[in-house]
Design brief:
alpha/beta; disordered N terminus; 37% helix; 13 helices; three-stranded antiparallel β-sheet
Length: 402
């Protein structure tokens, strides 16, 4: 399929069998697998089963995936991308590899983060005496100005999500980036909920490091991720752990090549690569990245945000408590309903929200509850028909309630 054939998003939807198996609005947990990716995985498994698997070809697949994700995020060079097993490992690579001193501090808003962008930083407090400065969320929004005001002369790093874990609002990165760069503070972002769905330009965002995994917006599997690390930063970092692929012994050298008389780290973020890669995961990611690039991230975002606006307005009109209220720039590809913090990982304290969850789930809508709110998350395979059906189901639910 070439760019010229992708005239209608409906043609893209047809590549996702799961898009017609009920209404799937759960990309924030994991995305649907497209047919081209399934076909690439099937070929990989067949070669593995019949003994014709070629490791050199797998290295090439890893490098194609590295190059494609660099293109998708507008990294300056593929060398600014490290191969990880998930977003959590990418964040830990940065946390563990920087040189910390007692009294250094970092700033974050833990209430809107996934735990895996909190624990790496708390661990620094225990290991090195780093002060972790926390800022409270404000009605579901990352309080950008409060974060900036927390910076002082000992602040080394700030971390924010591009899109919050729950309720899923977009973070306004620009003022944070400007403040961090003016004061020599590193900006590290967790982009697990955005890359692949929302247009992401790391140079425009002005971030120093960004971590993402492939099972969500990148439409592939658990077990693979990417870490973008700005070249100027990566080249100053001594990795906390090191293996063959993080060492420069020559691009054409065998994977077991070793120089005992010198230790030269690989350029850029490659120094964070370790041993053998998740080749199955790289095969899936490479195929899905090819499809995402073919469609175009700006086009995907425009499609998804149009649907999200339609969904949010419809649910508001049905009388539901859409988090954030009026539709605005904070909405990306996620609409949340309920009351923030009123529940656990898979339940809400509000009995009405639990009832609505079961009402929709029993009728084929797949979505999630996170921290007390119902979270609907969309991708390129969703349609107006999906949105309108969810709104209609919600109206039926509200109509039968006292």
């Amino acid at each position: 399929m070439t760019q010229s054939t992708l005239k209608d998003i409906a043609q893209v939807r047809a590549l996702f069998p799961g898009a017609t198996n009920g209404i799937y609005m759960n990309v924030s947990v994991r995305g649907l697998l497209p047919n081209p990716t399934r076909e690439a995985v099937d070929r990989f498994l067949q070669h593995h089963a019949d003994g014709t698997w070629d490791k050199a070809e797998m290295f090439e697949t890893v490098e194609r995936a590295r190059t494609r994700v660099a293109q998708l995020m507008n990294a300056g060079h593929p060398d600014e991308i490290a191969i990880t097993k998930n977003a959590s490992e990418g964040l830990n690579i940065i946390a563990a590899s920087l040189s910390w001193k007692p009294g250094d501090n970092l700033v974050l808003c833990p209430a809107l983060e996934h735990p895996n962008n909190v624990y790496p930083w708390l661990n620094l407090a225990r290991r090195y005496g780093v002060e972790v400065r926390t800022v409270a969320e404000r009605e579901g929004h990352v309080p950008v100005h409060a974060l900036v005001q927390s910076i002082d002369e000992r602040t080394r790093l700030m971390t924010v999500p591009t899109v919050s874990f729950s309720p899923g609002f977009i973070t306004d990165i620009s003022p944070v980036s400007r403040a961090c760069h003016e004061r020599g503070v590193l900006l590290v972002v967790d982009a697990a909920q955005s890359v692949g769905v929302l247009h992401t330009d790391v140079q425009q965002l002005g971030v120093d490091a960004l971590a993402v995994a492939t099972q969500k917006g990148l439409l592939a599997f658990y077990g693979l991720g990417f870490l973008y690390c700005k070249r100027e930063l990566a080249d100053t970092i001594q990795p906390a752990y090191l293996a063959r692929y993080g060492v420069a012994v020559g691009r054409d050298a065998h994977e077991t090549a070793m120089h005992l008389d010198r230790l030269t780290l690989a350029q850029g973020a490659r120094r964070f690569d370790l041993g053998n890669y998740n080749y199955l995961g790289a095969t899936a990611a490479n195929a899905s990245l090819g499809l995402l690039l073919e469609i175009g991230s700006k086009r995907i975002e425009a499609h998804v945000r149009r649907l999200v606006r339609r969904l949010a307005l419809g649910l508001l009109d049905a009388g539901l408590p859409v988090v954030g209220g009026e539709v605005g720039p904070h909405l990306g590809h996620i609409v949340s309903v309920g009351h923030i913090g009123g529940g656990g990982h898979d339940s809400a304290d509000d009995p009405a929200m639990n009832d609505l969850f079961h009402h929709l789930s029993d009728r084929g809508v797949r979505f999630a509850i996170r921290r007390g709110v119902l979270r609907f998350s969309l991708h390129v395979y969703n349609s107006e028909e999906d949105v309108d059906e969810v709104i209609a189901l919600a109206r039926r639910w509200t109509a039968r309630r006292p």
